[in-house]
Amino acid sequence: MNKIFKTIYNEVLGAWVAVSEFAKPNGKKSKSLLASAVAMSSLFTWGGVAVADDTAPKVDVYHLAKDLVQDDNGNIIGSQSQVSGGYLNFALINGSVVGYEGDINPEGNVSIGAQSFVKGGTDSFAIGSHAQVHNGPGTDGFGNYAIGAGAQVAALKKDGNPQSSIAIGSFAKVYGRESQSIGYEAQVYGNKSVAIGHGADVQADMAYAFGYQSHAFGKYSMSFGATSIAKKEQSIVLGVGSEASDIGSMVIGNFAYARGPYSSAFGTNAQANTGRSVAVGTLNYAGLYSDSGDIKDAIRNMPNFGLFGTEDDPLGVEEFNKFVKEVVDANSDQKLGHSSAIGVENVALYQTDVAMGFRNYAVGLNSVAMGRDNIAQSKGALVFGYSNRLKAEKSIVLGSNITAEQTNSVYLGDLSASDGWQTPVAPAPLTINGKTYSWAAASKEPTATTGTTGSNRQAANSYGIVTVGSVGNERQIQHVAAGRVSNDSTDAINGSQLNYYVKKLEQDIGKAGTGGSGTVPEYDFIGEKGISVEKKVIEGKTTITISYTGTGTTPGETTEIKVGANNPAEKGGANPVVGVKDLDIVGALTNSNEDPSKFDGGRNIQTTVKKDADTGKTTVTVALKNDLESNTLTVGGDGQNKKPKADGKINVVDKKGNTTVKITSGSEAEGTNSAVAPSVKVSSVDGQNLTSLEATGLTISAPATPGTTAPAVSLNATGLHIKDGPSVTKDGIDAGGRVISNVSAGVKPTDAVNVSQLNKTRNDLINRMDANHEQALGSAAMAMAMANLPHAIRPGDKTVSVAGSTVHGKAAFAVGISSSSLTGKWQLRGSVSGSDNGDIGAGIGAGYTWR
C-alpha cells in the first residue's frame, strides 16, 4: 500500500527533505533524514518517484510509487529489490542491501541496479547493473562506492575491510582501502592507490596508473600514458608504450625503456638497459638487451643507425654485420652498467662507456665516443670528432676521418694516420773524454727500463705513436716548449734550440780558423825539383816543413818555387793547394834571421810562418779567415753573378731588370746581438717605394691607382688597413661591409659564431616555441575541461563528472569528483585532466561558505 510522506526543513542539511509522516525534524534517528534525502534525489534522477508537485515546500505531502515500500527502520525498497535488516538503506531496481554473512545491521547503504548489492558496512553505494560493494563484517567497511555496470569494491584479504574506496566505470574494480579506479575495466589491487583510464591497472600499495592500459605493478610506482608499465618498486613511467622494468628505474618519453635497476631513459625510443645506465635523447641505447639475457645475443641485436650505409644498401649492411661480429668476438664477459648515451642514435655498451652526440658507438669496455659518426670499439678507446673509428686499445683519436689501429697511440687532426712504431737506426755509441753518449728510447725491448733517469732508458714493448697527419697532410707542431737536452732525455726540442746549436757550431768553426778550438782543414803540400815537404799534425794543428835538398842553387839568389803549378785546378794547375788561389814562395837574399819565405794565400786564406831558430826550419800554418770576402754573389738557380757597388751596397736585380732590393749600411753586431739595418726597402725601377722597414715600424704600401701615391695596403702601429676595405686595429676588426667567409664554429664564450650556428639556434628556438605553443594550447584545453566540470551544489551531494574541451585543434578531457557537506558550508573538489599532447594534470580544492 502507499505510504504518506511529508516535507520538513532540516537545519543540519539546510534543505527541505521528504520523510515519513511520523518522523521528527531532530529525532533520534537523525540519519534517516540524510538517507531519505539521498534516496529521493536518486529517485528524481532515475524517475522512480511519482510526486504530486516538485516545488517544495509549497506542498508538504509526497506519495511513494506503488512499488516502493518503507519499513519501520527507514529502509526504502523497490520492486524486486531487498534490504536485509539494518536501517536507513535504499534498494531499487532489483538492488540488494544485505548484512555480511548473517550480520543484519547495514546502515546508510544504497543499491540501485539489476543484481547490484551492498553487503555489510555503512555509507556505501552500488549503482549500476551488477555493481557490488563488499564491505565485510561489522561496521569497519564504510564509505565505498561502486558506480557502473559490474563495478566492484572489496577488500584485500591481508588488510581487512575496504574503506573510502571508489570504483567508477563499467567493470571498474578496487580491492583495498582508500583507493580509486576510474574508467572502463580500470582496477586497483592495493591500498592508497589510483587507476584512471580504460584498462588502467594497479597491483601494489601507493601506486598510480593514468591512461589507457597503463600499469603500475610496484609499490610507490607511477605510470602515466597509454600502455605504459611501471613494474618494480619506485619505478616511474611518463609516456606512451614505455616501460620501467626494475627498481628505481625512470622513463620519460614514448616507447622508451629503463630495464636496469636505477636506470633512466629520457626521450622517444630511448633505452637504458643495464643498472644505473642513462639514455637521454631519441634512439639512444645505454646498454643492450636480449630476451635470453645473453650479452652476445644483445650485441647481435645492436641497432643499425646507417653509419655504414642505409638498410637498402647491401654493402652498408654487410659492413655493419662485420662490425657487429667484431664486437661479439671481442666480448669476454665484460662488466655491464653505468653506461651513458646522450644525444640522438647513440650506443654505449659496457660499464662506464659514454656515447654522446649523433650516431656514435662506444662498444669497448671503458670507451668514449663523442661527436658524430664515431666508433670506439676497443678497451679504453677515446674518440672525439667526426667519422672516426678506433679499433686499438688505450688509444685516443681527436679529429675527423681517422681509422686508428695502433695500440697506446694518439691520433690528432683530420686524416691522421700511422704505420705504427718504426724502429730508428741508432748510430754506435760515441765516447768523448771517457764519457759515452747514445740515443735514448731508440728501441723497444721487453726488459727495457721505464725510469726517468739512466742512459739505457727505452720505451716499453706496448708503447705506440703520436701522429698529427698523414702523407700529403702533414702539420707543424708549434709553440713547443724547450726540451731537456741530455744523454738520456726523450723530450722534444723546438726550432730555437736547434738554431742555437747551429749558430754555436758556426762560431766554433770560425774560432778554429784563428787558433781557437776545433778542427782545422787539412792542406797537402807537394815539393818538386829539390824541394821536400814534411807534414806533421799535432793536437789538430798541421805543421808543414819545406826544405831544399837539391844542388846548383847559389845562396842569396832569388828562387821562385811553384807548388802545383802555382794555380788552382780551374786555371790549369797540376796539383793545386786546396783553398789557395796563388802561392809564391820566395827565398831571402841573405841567410839572416828574417822570415826566409813569404806566403800569400790571397783573400779568405791566412798564413802564419814560424821559423825554428835551432833547426832553421820554417812552419807554415794555413787556415780560412774569420771574415770572408767575395767579388761575386750568386743568386737563384740561373747562376747570375752580382758585383757589389763602390759604396758598399749590394743590388739584386731580376732578369727583367724591373725590381731592386737595396740593403743599406747598418751597424755591426755586438756580443750575441744581430746587426739590424736602419731601413730595408723594396723599390720599383722608377724609385717608388713599395715596401719599407723603418725604425718606427713596418709599412707595406702600393698605389691603389697607377700613377698615384695613395696606399692600397698599409701595416703600421695603428694596424692593417686596406683601402676601401677591411681593417684590423687594436680596437677590433672592421669588415668594411664585406662578408667574412669560412668562419669556424665558435666554441668559447668569446668566439665568433657562423651563420650555420645562428640558423641552428634559430631553428632550435622556433622548434622550442612551437613545442611550447602546442604545450600551452594543450594546457589551456586541460584548464577549460577542468573548469567545465559540474560539481555538487546541494548539501550532502556527491558528484562525479566528465568534461571535454578543444582549443585550436588541441583536445583535452577532465574527470572530477566533488562533494558538499551536510550543512552545505564545506565543499571539496578533485579532478584529473589530460590532453592529446600526452600531458596529465590534477587538482584538488576545498571551500568554506558562510553568510
Automatic annotation (TrEMBL):
Keywords: Cell outer membrane, Membrane, Protein transport, Signal, Transmembrane, Transmembrane beta strand, Transport. One of its GO terms (cellular component) is cell outer membrane. GO terms for biological process: protein transport. It comes from the Bacteria. The keyword Transport applies. Residues 1-43 form the ESPR domain. It is found in: Cell outer membrane; Cell surface. CDD domains: LbR_YadA-like (cd12820). InterPro entries: Adhesin_Head_dom, Coiled_stalk_dom, ESPR, Pilin-like, Serralysin-like_metalloprot_C, YadA_C. The keyword Membrane applies. Gene3D superfamilies: 1.20.5.170, 2.20.70.140, GSPII I/J protein-like, Serralysin-like metalloprotease, C-terminal. Residues 182-200, 207-226, 230-256, 258-282, 354-372 form the Trimeric autotransporter adhesin YadA-like head domain. Residues 790-850 form the Trimeric autotransporter adhesin YadA-like C-terminal membrane anchor domain. Residues 476-517, 740-769 form the Trimeric autotransporter adhesin YadA-like stalk domain. Pfam families: ESPR, YadA_anchor, YadA_head, YadA_stalk. Belongs to the autotransporter-2 (AT-2) (TC 1.B.40) family. This is Autotransporter adhesin.
